[in-house]
TrEMBL record, chain A:
Membrane topology: Multi-pass membrane protein
Protein name: Cytochrome b
Cofactors named for this entry: heme b
Protein's cellular compartments: Cell membrane
SUPFAM superfamilies: Transmembrane di-heme cytochromes
Pfam families with a match to the protein in the record: Ni_hydr_CYTB
UniProt-listed GO biological process terms: respiratory electron transport chain
UniProtKB/TrEMBL annotation, chain B:
Domain Lipid/polyisoprenoid-binding YceI-like: 21-186
Signal peptide: 1-19
Endoplasmic reticulum is among the record's keywords: no
Protein name as it appears in the record: Protein YceI
Matching InterPro entries: Lipid/polyisoprenoid-bd_YceI, TTHA0802/YceI-like_sf
């Protein structure tokens, strides 16, 4: 069996873990009661792991353009290949949009954001309330759509593993 | 000539009997919509609305006829913290997307003394209208150095967030919001 390289696999599963955490924490933190001990902590974790995701994503994009992420051609129908490639392309678009809007909202005041007293994030620019609200809308609904794509991606992997019984999933493990 | 003086006096008399109209000095920004609310019962949080407009009328001979109308752009809420302001604009609090403005329209004024009094009117926030009474303190009036005539007041009131269907709870100490409207009007 022709596996993906170790680096590709690590980046894949790290991204998966981070995106999963980002979705759950983002969804949960806005519902927290003001008196919850997590009211300040969870958003700070969401921001910090979001920055980690941004770094991982940067590496992923660099590797993509550097040709380091060789696509293996799985034994799939053309339709499935187009669908899976489209979904993976949309991952790039949506995750990039989400980390960018997240970063810009964090620093919208025009002042650096400090996370856990040691991560200093410089403010690129200052934004008006209306722009921040638009970015918030993109961030929220973009996340729901992204998770929809993740679900399709997972369904595809599971289908290949259990129904087609091919190596698509195994090559990433 | 006598007739002319008669009409002149009559005319001036009519003019002075009319309530003078004042526009809030938005251009020079001598008007403020401020609020404070307790944080956890430990301290006061101050905020303001940056964009609003309005006008008032006042007649020295009939102060009970004084009236005011103000419209506040709720999206301009500013508590000097971008993330909190974003939260305040959301449907947890001001619901700016659905209700971009808050209004106050006076219905009656009860003068006390020295130009002070109580202004009653309808305050609309988050699409909910309630009658409120504002304690109005007259600050001063007169000619400004640039050829205009000005008159200023500071008014305060307390409102319960729940009366305006603001569903998000900030705890028992933070149910009441103290509103201060400080305005200077320029006579039209």
């Amino acid at each position: 069996m022709n596996k993906y390289t170790l680096t590709t696999r690590i980046i894949h599963w790290l991204s998966a873990l981070l995106i999963f955490f980002m979705f759950i924490s983002g969804w949960y933190m806005v519902e927290l009661d003001y008196y919850s001990p997590w009211y300040n902590r969870l958003p700070e974790l969401h921001y910090a792991f979001g920055m980690l995701l941004m770094l991982v994503w940067l590496i992923k994009i660099i590797r993509l353009f550097a040709g380091q992420q060789k696509r293996l051609s799985p034994p799939v129908k053309p339709f499935e290949r187009i669908l899976s490639q489209l979904i993976q392309f949309l991952f790039y678009v949506f995750v990039t949009a989400l980390v960018m809007t997240g970063y810009l909202m964090m620093t919208a005041q025009g002042q650096p954001k400090i996370l856990f007293e040691f991560i200093h994030l410089p403010a690129l620019t200052e934004f008006s309330g209306a722009v921040v609200d638009t970015m918030g809308w993109i961030h929220e609904y973009g996340a729901y759509i992204l998770i929809g794509f993740v679900a399709l991606h997972v369904i595809g992997a599971v289908k290949h593993h259990f129904i087609d019984k091919d190596d698509t999933l195994k090559r990433m493990i | 000539m006598k007739k002319f003086i008669y009409y002149l006096v009559l005319g001036l008399g009519t003019l002075s009997a009319q309530a003078a109209e004042y526009d809030l000095d938005i251009k020079g920004q001598h008007a403020f919509v401020q609020f404070k609310i307790q944080h956890l019962g430990f301290s006061w949080l101050y905020g303001r609305f940056d964009n609003f407009d309005g006008s008032f009328t006042y007649d020295e001979n009939a102060p009970e006829k004084a009236s005011i109308e103000m419209t506040v752009q709720t999206g301009s809420v500013n508590s000097n913290h971008a993330e909190r302001d974003k939260h305040l604009r959301s449907d947890d609090f001001l619901n700016v997307a659905k209700y971009p403005t808050a209004q106050f329209v006076s219905s009656s004024f009860t003068p006390t003394k020295d130009g002070h009094g109580t202004m009653t009117g309808d305050l609309t926030i988050n699409g909910v209208t309630n009658e409120v009474e504002l304690d109005v303190q007259f600050v001063g009036a007169g000619d400004d150095p640039w050829g205009g005539h000005r008159r200023g007041y500071e008014a305060t009131t307390e409102i319960n967030l729940s009366d305006y269907k603001i569903k998000r709870s900030l705890g028992p100490s933070s149910e009441k919001l103290y509103l201060t409207v400080s305005v200077e009007g320029i006579k039209k």
